[in-house]
Amino acid sequence: MKYKMSDLPNIVSISDFRQDVAKFLTQVHDSRDPWVITQRCRAAAVMLSVESYEQAERDKELWRLLARGEREIGCRNWVWSGLNPGCS
Question: What is the separation, in whole angstroms, between the first and last Cα of the chain?
Answer without folding.
Answer: 46
